Structure formats: structure tokens, C-alpha cells
């Protein structure tokens, strides 16, 4: 389980750490880097970047995070590959799939997956670990399962080509049960852990 701590203060993260949580997800590059620096003496923490990534911010992600979930272009993957410091282990990356939200600009279509995976899997400094999706919100369990099953199938197909693929990042507060039923290996939970987010301070 990834604890999604975006917009939440370090005091909330400290409480989660005290409960044994070690993996945290952040959406905004600078906010995430500030938190990583704050907790830099705690080497057991693993930081995941899960927000949209523009090319002018790739260096900060390459230099500070352990994972990036939102790869949807070769250009971004190449920059992360080039900018990952040699002193660090490879950056773990996931390809983001636009599985249901036609209005979302984030993520690739499933029909584009084989091509992008082939290009990314050979880049040094980054390691393709699997897939990520943010489905359009569905309130019904059956509807959620219908969409998430498509991710499960794509994940299994990718795994059969690349044996090191082991991560299917899906499931948030409102669809985690369906995501787990559909084979998620990493749920990203914010609200159910930290409570509702307050965006009024323009975070
Ligand atoms: C905010 C966010 C989450 C957590 O969402 P909740 O509904 O609060 O659990 C998970 N994944 C991504 C990519 C997010 O941006």
C-alpha cells in the first residue's frame, strides 16, 4: 500500500511512519522533494512520484524519487533515464494507461502499450516495473471491476513478455476493493488514511 500524502503536512506523514508505513506517494514535484529532504535521514522510506510530469521537472524526479508511476511518453522516459544519477539504483517506472477516461490527457491507450514498453525497457537508469491507471470515477463495484479487468489483462500480457514486470498500480480510496479483486499489487490510498484534502491554500 502506498500512502498518498499530497497536500498533507509532514506531521501526518510522521504519524503514518509511526504506524509502520514506509511507502509514500506525492503528486507535486516540489512538495514531494521538500518532504523527501525533510525525511532524508530515514533511509527506510520509499518515495513514489504519482502526478503528471512535465519535462522541465524530470530532473528533480530522477534525482529524488525511487519510483515514477506516470510515464506516458518516450520523451519523459528518456529524460529520466539520462538524468538518473549513477550513484542511485535504477528509477522504477510504470507506464500510465488511459483506461477509461476519454477526457484525461494523461496515459496512453492500450493499443500503444507494446510499442512504448519496448522502447522504455531498453533504457539505462530506469527499470520498467509495470502499469498504472487512474480510471474515471465509477461508484458501482461491478462497473469498477469491468474497467479494472482490462488493466489486469494488459498487465498479464506484459508480464508474459517481460518477466521482471511485477507492479500493477491501481486502486484508490473509492475503488480499492475492486482493484484488489482485479490483481492490483499496489493500491494508492490518500483520503482513507489521511482524511479529505484541503486545496484552499492552492496546493
Ligand atoms: C490523489 C491520488 C490518489 C489517492 O486518492 P484518494 O482517493 O484520496 O485515495 C491516488 N492516486 C493518484 C494518482 C492520486 O493523484
UniProtKB/TrEMBL annotation:
Positions where N6-(pyridoxal phosphate)lysine occurs in the chain: 6
Alphabetical list of PROSITE patterns matching this protein: UPF0001
One Pfam family linked to the record: Ala_racemase_N
Gene3D superfamilies referenced in this protein's UniProt entry, alphabetically: Alanine racemase
UniProt entry tagged with the keyword Transcription: no
CDD domains attached to this UniProt entry: PLPDE_III_Yggs_like
Cofactors demanded by this protein: pyridoxal 5'-phosphate
Gene Ontology molecular function terms on file: pyridoxal phosphate binding
Positions of the Alanine racemase N-terminal domain: 13-197
Entry keyword set: Pyridoxal phosphate
Source superkingdom: Bacteria
Family: Belongs to the pyridoxal phosphate-binding protein YggS/PROSC family.
NCBIfam families, alphabetized: YggS family pyridoxal phosphate-dependent enzyme
Function: Pyridoxal 5'-phosphate (PLP)-binding protein, which is involved in PLP homeostasis.
Assembly mode: Monomer.
This protein's name: Pyridoxal phosphate homeostasis protein
Natural source organism: Proteus myxofaciens ATCC 19692
Amino acid at each position: 500500500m502506498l500512502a498518498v500524502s499530497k497536500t498533507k503536512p509532514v506531521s501526518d506523514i510522521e504519524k503514518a511512519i509511526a504506524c509502520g508505513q514506509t511507502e509514500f506517494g506525492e503528486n507535486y514535484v516540489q512538495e514531494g522533494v521538500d518532504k523527501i529532504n525533510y525525511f532524508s535521514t530515514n533511509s527506510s522510506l520509499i518515495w513514489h512520484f504519482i502526478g503528471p510530469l512535465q519535462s522541465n521537472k524530470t530532473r528533480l524526479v530522477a534525482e529524488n524519487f525511487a519510483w515514477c508511476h506516470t510515464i506516458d511518453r518516450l520523451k519523459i522516459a528518456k529524460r529520466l533515464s539520462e538524468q538518473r544519477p549513477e550513484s542511485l539504483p535504477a528509477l522504477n517506472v510504470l507506464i500510465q494507461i488511459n483506461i477509461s477516461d476519454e477526457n484525461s490527457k494523461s496515459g496512453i491507450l492500450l493499443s500503444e502499450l507494446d510499442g512504448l514498453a519496448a522502447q522504455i525497457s531498453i533504457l539505462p537508469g530506469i527499470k520498467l516495473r509495470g502499469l498504472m491507471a487512474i480510471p474515471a470515477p465509477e461508484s458501482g463495484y461491478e462497473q469498477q471491476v469491468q474497467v479494472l479487468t482490462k488493466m489486469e489483462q494488459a498487465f498479464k500480457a506484459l508480464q508474459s513478455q517481460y518477466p521482471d514486470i511485477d507492479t500493477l498500480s491501481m486502486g484508490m480510496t473509492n475503488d480499492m476493493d475492486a482493484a484488489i479483486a482485479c490483481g492490483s499489487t499496489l493500491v494508492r490510498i490518500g483520503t482513507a488514511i489521511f482524511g479529505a484534502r484541503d486545496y484552499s491554500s492552492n496546493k
